[in-house]
Amino acid sequence: MKMLVCVKQVPDTTEIKIDPVKNTLIRDGVPSILNPFDGYALEAAARIKDADPSSTITVLSMGPEQAKAVLKESLAIAADKAYLVSGREFGGSDTLCTSYIISEAIKEIEKTEGKFDIIFCGKQAIDGDTAQVGPGIAEHLDYPQVTYGLEASVEDGLVKVKKETEDGVQVIGIQTPCVLTFTKPSFDPRYPTIKRKMAANRANIPVLAFADLVDLDPNKIGLKNSPTRVKKTFVPQKKTGGMKIAEETVEDSAKKLFTLLSDSHVI
Amino acid sequence: MVNYLFATEEQKELANEARKILEKELKPRIDELDEANGGLGGYPMDVHMKLVEAGFYGAYIPQEWGGLGLDPVTLGVIYEEMGKIDSGFAFSFAGSGCEFPKILKTSMPDEEKQKWADKIINEGAMGSFNLTEANAGSDAAAIRTTATFDEATNEWVINGTKCFCSNAPTASYFICIAWTDKTKRASEGVTAFFVEKERGVQIGKQERKMGLHLAGTSDVIYDNVRVPADHVIGQVGKGFAEALGGIKGAGALVNCCSSLGMAQSAYDQAVEYAKTRRQFGKRIIDFQAVGFMLADMETKIEAARALMYESLVCARDGVDSKHVDMMIKQFITDTVMQVCEDAVQVAGGYGYMKDYPFERYMRNAKIYQIFGGTNQIKRKNLMKVIAGKDPEAVRK
Lengths: 267, 396
Known about the structure:
Helix content of chain A is about 30%, strand content about 25%. Chain A is α/β, with parallel strands linked by helices. Chain A has a single domain (about 1-225), classed as Rossmann fold (3-Layer(aba) Sandwich), CATH 3.40.50.620. In chain A, α2 (about 70-75) links the parallel β6 and β7 (about 80-85). The longest helix of chain A is centred in the middle third of the chain and has 19 residues, at about 95-115. The radius of gyration of chain A is 22 Å and the shape is globular. The mean pLDDT of chain A is about 90. Chain B has three domains: about 10-125, Butyryl-Coa Dehydrogenase, subunit A, domain 1, CATH 1.10.540; about 125-245, Butyryl-CoA Dehydrogenase, subunit A, domain 2; about 250-385, Up-down Bundle (Butyryl-CoA Dehydrogenase, subunit A, domain 3). In chain B, β9 and β10 form a beta hairpin. The interface of A and B includes residues 193 and 195 of A.
């Protein structure tokens, strides 16, 4: 299988603090990390490669030069090759434009690497939380897609994807080429190995600039061609955590609820 | 955060990766592991295997044997960072993995040596160094373990009981020091052997220790254990000289890096505590009695670190550092003990309680002044080198 994993560099939202005066996120000094959902996608691809070592994994990211850090991290974890799409022309692109640029970059990379069978994405990035870029790439490429994947395997040329649904898990077979987006599985992604990490530090990562994407329509990218705008960002009011009462019997649950309400003088 | 100022970006990255793994896999469980098995503790093999999978175990093993050939300074940065999470775990991880050079000194066939390199790197096979006995601590020549040669089978037969053996409960192989010729002096009559566990090595009771609970310690019993003649490390009769030299910079790497990491952690948390704790209307760090203690703690740590990395740089670059090597263990581990004790003092009553890690740091710190050669023996050795032989001494 020839696989491509799209990854994004995001601020570590667990480290982000809120400016109490401006009510905005303080990003200064916040470390950048590999978007965790992209990490799950990379792990899914790595597991396919574990089963069939002749498979290859290429990673692709769009962003400034610093985004090479997450490409290097991906190389240290499982990827064989990495590409960065970078250019001022792409700045301010919304999810429609971003997914278009990435789909064009994929086509450009395929000219050297050959056609990819599976495109992996995280279900969403933890900074924007839109969950639109993965499906957008599938639409631009006109590929079938499965979203909210947990695991993927290849059986007789057919990709089998476990997909999380509100009620449980669906198992879907999908033909290649296809796009899969991934959510958090029950297992932890593997750690990078130091051997791969040292090799990744020495890896040459090609950068695809605006001029390299020869088939790209310049009227479909950037801030001015983005049909959506972020109108306002705000910090939602914090909700206090609830608690789940699930005793062995309904009667026990009711008793516990009564005790809790009574102890806090609600009743 | 890596503290060594001259660490390269790559050294920092590798060390941070090791710490990240331990922060996730070990940190949340340290208290539980510290008190596991009725207070004996135990070495968490699952965490060990996570680091093995990530390639950290035996990473110094030369590339021609399948390792990464990491240099002593890089290893030092990694082990110091690991020591910040738990020094007992870091000590065991570093110590049990550093014996491959001794396997290389045997005359076993290369395929056999390669098999052990693979076992260490890929399967995390741990080693245990067995010298100390009930009546032979600092006086190592007083050991009673013997190895006799059986010419009929071309094997050595080892008999004896070793005690306080670090990593023995989880080890796959052992380095055993035994008398092979009691008619000679120890420097001529003691031999080191490489012994696989399956040759009949028995593991005795696990010791109940004051601290370092994440590092397993037990007796090791050799009851007619037979090893082929090619399992001798170096030359017969040269056991002390051959077996005490491990990987380059081993002394600093195993004892000093892991414990200094712990001292740094104790200091960092003591500073945090002293900035948060308020008495008489101000932060306790603003009282000179506390602030001076912290200033001294940081100074001592930095001095210890400078000495430690000087020794490791010498080991890396092949510079003769005999005197420095003879200073590091006692200076660094005395510093570690002092800093960890002071950290308890800074945190006061809370420092004494198990809700904070300070008491564990202090319990862990003590052993570093004792094992690997007591700090008194280390001073005696250095003294002998400084003094040299008295040309006018009269033997009485």
